[in-house]
Amino acid sequence: MKPRVISGAMDTVFEFDYSVQAEDMRGLYEKAKRDQWNAARDIAWQTPEPSDGRVLADELIDIHGSPIWERLGESDRVELNRRITAWRLSVLLYGEQGAMLACSQLVDIVAGADQKFFQATQVMDEARHNEVLERYLQSRLGGLHYPMPENERFLFDTILTEPRWYIKTIALQLVAETFAVSMFKMMAEAARDPVLSEVCRRILLDESRHMGFGMLALPGILREASEAERREMEEFTCLALEKVLTGFFPLEAYQDVGFSPAQIDEVRRYRRDAAARSDYGAYRTFFRRDMHAAMVNNLARLGLLTERVRPRLAALGVELPAAA
Ligand SMILES: [Fe+2]
Ligand SMILES: [Fe+2]
Asked: Cα of 135 to ligand 1 centre, how many Å?
């Protein structure tokens, strides 16, 4: 695939004071240095693959249990299992690349040595995540990649062309990473391939720090924001949430297994009906609950769960606690 060039302009802040100003942030930087892991050394790549070829539990395939699923033979089920996993990992892989690029911009834009040092570690973390997912796709799934979904492209174009650090942080460290954490947790639990489970667990070790950056850096800017700026931050929160929570359908994976347009329509109908009944299966129910709870909790802690934000979250199917 050809690289994508995204034009933009932003300020670089050159710091001269390198003393500790924000102790919590410096602490996060210390943890990041201490807890680096290495995909080349720390993952047991030689572990045998599951004998039936499944990398994830079938329950994670959204048509699992449907009449369409019941009609599939064993080899198509395994093929779908592998291709849908590759599709999901591709989405996450592009997310890691996007996160690395966004954090490299944050190194420039943020003021304060503590913040810059921490962002430099996140650049490295995201490079390692990008690397480990690519290694997994190459070594376990035959190098299968799927294209970047439109929603994800739109989200990262917005993040990468936005000059203000706090808008990038809201979209990346607050919204997109909350989604990614729940996704990696679900995949770590539901993996049939122990290497996939290990990859997801390793990535998760780093993610809490990344979300920690948002939770440490955003309160100050939110406190000082004017009404118009606050509205804008809320708007970006909702926009990022809408992009993250809607429109991820692994169309190409179904096509590659040989589903006809009529069968794909049936898949879409089944997904819609299941969503309307809130019938998601055990893993997906866990994923939704986990992600929604984490999102609501973080937004509430930051004071972003306002009367303007709540109805938009509710429209996305996010369960909200009663307003205080
Ligand atoms: Fe990451
Ligand atoms: Fe991250």
From this structure: 15
For residue 324, what pLDDT band results from cuts at 50, 70 and 90? low
pLDDT value for 44 = 97
CA distances from 318 to 139, 217, 260 (A): 37, 25, 33
CA of 151 to the centre of ligand 1 (A): 18
What is residue 61's predicted lDDT score, i.e. its pLDDT? 92
Alpha helices in 1-149 (DSSP H): 23-34, 39-42, 67-71, 74-109, 113-140
Mean pLDDT value of segment 200-208:
96
The reply to whether the predicted model has a pTM over 0.85 is yes
Distance 20 CA to ligand 2 centre (A): 24
In sequence order, what are the residues at sequence separation of 6 or more whose Cβ sits closer than 8 angstroms to the Cβ of residue 135?
39, 43, 45
